[in-house]
Amino acid sequence: MKNLRMKAARAGKDLSQEDLANLVNVSRQTISAIEKGNYNPTINLCIRICQALGKTLDELFWPKE
User: Fold this and answer.
1) Is residue 44 over pLDDT 90?
2) Tally of domains within the chain
3) I need a labelling partner for 45 at 20 to 30 A (CA). Which of 9, 21, 37, 65 fits?
4) H/E/C letters for each residue in the chain?
5) pLDDT digits (tens, 9 = 90+) for 1-38
6) pTM of the entire structure?
7) In terms of Cα–Cα distance, which of 29, 28, 26, 32 is closest to 6?
8) What CATH number has the domain bearing residue 30?
9) 29 is in which domain, residue-wise?
10) Is 62 domain-assigned?
11) Distance of alpha carbon 36 from alpha carbon 1, whole angstroms
């Protein structure tokens, strides 16, 4: 499932995929794969992404009903 919430949060902070990748110490391709729904990040990576974007795990990664 695509992670449009993460993509929107990243865009809201005016960050490119490369910028976010550098902040959380992964490749741009990893950020792209998460946003496309092709990769499930570890909980540690989820936490780093949330911290970088100022969001909670629920806001970015918990599926909405």
Assistant:
1) yes
2) 1
3) 65
4) CCCHHHHHHHHHCCCCHHHHHHHHCCCHHHHHHHHHCCCCCCHHHHHHHHHHHCCCHHHHHCCCC
5) 789 999 999 999 999 999 999 999 999 999 999 999 99
6) 0.92
7) 32
8) 1.10.260.40
9) 4-55
10) no
11) 7
